[in-house]
Design a protein that fits this description.
By secondary structure, the chain is an all-alpha fold. The protein is built from four helices and no strands.
Length: 134
């Protein structure tokens, strides 16, 4: 397998199957910690991670986990999009927390993801603007 080729579909398929099981079926063994809900949360995190790896390999056509700025087509536009998406995600988590039956840890995880989006977007904006070397 060359550097530019990557297999994305198994990760995406596994992630979708795991998330369907977590969100709709809801079965999980009690595990060594004797708590089904904790195991279900672990399954959910594994499913989200698998979806991310599949998306990354599909989008950038390479293996890896970190979206280096050299992989992006339009860094300034993508940075603004990431910051906007992160802010919308934080506010939607805040508003949805009182309406939806999501556990408190779910909101924390979504806010962590949103904060990482804002951090990556801010870095992208700064590298194309203030920190851009001539």
């Amino acid at each position: 397998m060359s550097r530019r080729e990557s297999t994305w579909w198994p990760f995406l398929g596994i992630g979708i199957i795991i998330l369907i099981e977590v969100l709709f079926v809801g079965w999980a063994p009690s595990g060594p910690w004797e708590d089904e809900s904790f195991t279900l949360g672990v399954f959910g995190i594994i499913g989200l991670f698998s979806l991310y790896v599949g998306w990354f390999r599909w989008k950038f056509k390479t293996n890896g986990l970190i979206p280096w700025l050299s992989l992006w087509n339009d860094v300034a536009r993508s940075g603004k999009l990431l910051v906007t998406l992160g802010v919308v995600m934080i506010f939607s988590t805040w508003f949805a927390g009182s309406w939806l039956a999501i556990p408190p840890a779910g909101g924390l995880i979504l806010n962590l993801i949103a904060s990482l989006l804002i951090l990556q977007g801010t870095y992208a904006i700064l590298t194309t603007g203030l920190l851009n070397e001539p």
